[in-house]
Amino acid sequence: MALKIGATAINKLYLGSTAINKAYLGADVLFSGVFSPASLFAGGTDGVWYDPSDLSTLFQDSAGTTPVTAASDPIGYAGDKSGNDNHAIQATAAARPTYQTGPARATLDKVDDRLSVTVPTGGFTGTMVLATDQGTASYGVTIPAGAYDIGGRSGLYFPGNAIVGQLIRDGALSAGEAAATEAYFVANGATASYGAVTNFSQFWLNWSEITSFPLIDTSSGTNFAQAWQNCTSLTSFPLIDTSSGTTFGYAWRNCNSLTSFPLIDTSSGTSFSVAWYNCTSLTSFPLIDTSSGTSFDRAWYNCNSLTSFPLIDTSSGTSFDRAWFNCTSLTSFPLIDTSSGTSFDRAWSNCSSLTSFPLIDTSAGTGFGYAWYNCNSLTSFPLIDTSSGTDFSRAWQNCTSLTSFPANAFDNISGGDFTDAFTSTALTETSIDNVLVSLVASGIAAGTRVFGQSGGSAPSSTGEAAITTLRSRGWTVTVTGGY
Amino acid sequence: MRLTIACPDALRADGNHFAMVLGYGPADAETYVALNWQDADGNLYACASLIVSDTFVSKAQSTLSRPAWDVDNIIDMDAARRAQAALVFSLTPVAAMPDKLTACAGDDALATLAAMGLSQVEVDI
After folding, report:
1. What ipTM was predicted for this assembly?
2. Do A92 and B30 touch (CB under 8 A)?
3. Among A156, A231, A268, A355, which is most exposed with the fewest C-beta within 10 angstroms?
């Protein structure tokens, strides 16, 4: 029922100068000036609206026969108040959320609890407002038809511990509508801001339906591990406050639709392991502050659209294992500070567009296995410090354009595993001689002593003499030409 | 009382028959589904957590009988009894075992699982 003058609905009603919130005709509300989410579904607009504060919508069983009446009752059925009959159910008893009061909410154990709705044909493309005990936010979403968990993705991943309210509308909400809906849920007891949350680990993990992410308050967050992992529909990311964040491991892994990334404050971050792994649509990366970062392993693994990389501060980094693996579009690499790095295994493997490589500080590096494997556009290589290195197996294998390699590169190495190190390269006679003579200079006569080269030129008599010496020290040497 | 239960992979089928006996219908055959948890030795578990009554605990430890709803004999009572025989019930967390259905009381399900020596299986690594 609505109060109208002719065909025009009345938005505001006054008694004198005092606005009236509600007017009744008998028991029926004739006029309401108070926002109700129901208004968002006028005219048959599809979507869902769950409201645990309305006990009449909650039932213990999935058939909707036994009402929820008290705290600790299971919720097997949450009625949809949008008018679309998209009720959410949980048929398995152990997986039902629990009703709690103060505020009224559906609590999730984050082990197996979840309610599921069957999204109708056509799906929902619009806005989701999710109000929890830890924060409230609005997201752009595209949800396909079929089963959809409104609480706890796979029973595990949810930005909070309880649902205080949730609304999804097929059709984007205006900013005002979203704000009004958030305020409605907050009035029902939802926490307005995520500003007090410190641990965001796995909050939005696997939320592939999110197409936009809001600028929420994350200023207290220290742990962002896996927070947005597998959010595969996000094309951009807001400039959230991550200044307190220390752990960013796996944070944006597989966000493979992100085309850009903001200059967030990561100055406190120590772990960036796998952080942007497989962000295959990123074409550039900002100059974020990584000065506290120690772990960069797999950080930009398979970011294969990155054409350049900034001169970030990696001076504290110890692990660079597979950090830029398969960044196939990188044409150059900056002179970053890798002086603390110990593991460089596969770090630039498959960076097949790199035409040059800088003289980075690898003096602490022990592992270089596969480090530049398949960098098949490199024509030369700098005289890096290999003095701590023990494993160089396949380090330059398949660098099919690599012709020039410096003298004295391995004079001070700590170990002799060069298995297939220069297999399928294009080393000149001088370069292969340089390598072999340098290995002799290293004096390595114990431990693993294997060297492999194929492609390019055979060594000269100088190189052959070096091979003879190496073999006398127990080395197994394979070179082009078969000497 | 909140009860958190770790069901090892080998007992999943039996555990789900047991869950149907204690539960309300055939949907309870989906109680132990995803092997999302593992112990230090890498043994995988499907876990469930729910608030239960004392009656539930008593029923779980008593002679099992086919529930009235199971007129079609969906439940394999032998399987349910095998799961019951493997049941370890504790008011405090005890280590999950790969040949036991371990049920522990505790208000915080995730904390209970951690105390049972279980950690989440890494996602899609």
Report:
1. 0.94
2. yes
3. A355
